[in-house]
Amino acid sequence: MSGARIVARPPEHLYPFSSHYLKVRGLRLHYLDEGPRDAPPVLMLHGNPTWSFYYRNLVRALSETHRCIVPDHIGCGLSDKPGDDKYDYRLDSRIEDVDSLIKHLDLAGPITLVVHDWGGMIGFAWAVRNPERISKLVILNTAAFPLPEEKRMPPALSLVRDLKIGEFLVLRFNAFSAIAARVAFKKPISKEIRKAYTLPYDSPANRIATARFVQDIPLSENDPGFDILLKTAEHLHLLENKPCLIAWGEKDFVFDNTFLKRWLDYYPDAEIHRYPDCGHYILEDGGPALIDTITNFIEIREDSNHGHVSG
What we know:
The protein is α/β, with parallel strands linked by helices. Helices cover about 35% and strands about 15% of the residues.
């Protein structure tokens, strides 16, 4: 597979942002950089199979007062989509890419980190190595620790992770992105928005990351990245004094309440918002009210008190 490049973009009214690119390993990493350059930075990291489009409404809400940085991981969104001969699609490379972007931008001041899905593992792996660079945390249906003992790997993910037929279905028929665009929402969504989520994954060559992300899920010490996962979990306490908001869609079939409970073991003082009727794409299902909740949390003074809140 070659490093295919996507030129198609969602309609301007849905994605009204300028594109920026950084060369990493000879590949183009696409990112958004919206808002005043000297404003407090907010780094938003997406997962699989989403892309920077996922954060569009939060960027709109924050970009007048904050510098919003939203990369597309290599193989996702508007970034290059190389074959395995050009990029290894492993967790350590993802972390290095984010580190390269942060260094390239020379962000002023501590960073508010917003993470979802795989963005949690990538972002927290960077954050525990740089705790002094972190201002606040926003956690959205994700993990940065091993699979909880009481949680079984969902069969649909195991199919893609462990069997060639699963990889074939993802690459040939866009099974992962297309299915996610159906089941990850629990509220009505327009066809236009649903299409925008799958837009970058319009050919087998452009779907490699959606398969590799699943195949890279570290479940045991024999898996690449498991050592990073353990070290990250062991050092999450380095961020326990940071203001933290957790917004959780309780209809997420992967990141369910067993993961939420584990987060609360690490961050018992987090501001918690539970959404019993929302799914994995919590920013979509939560709508403007959730965007307002996150915006208010990020904009409040650093020395404000933070406690439990029910959503």
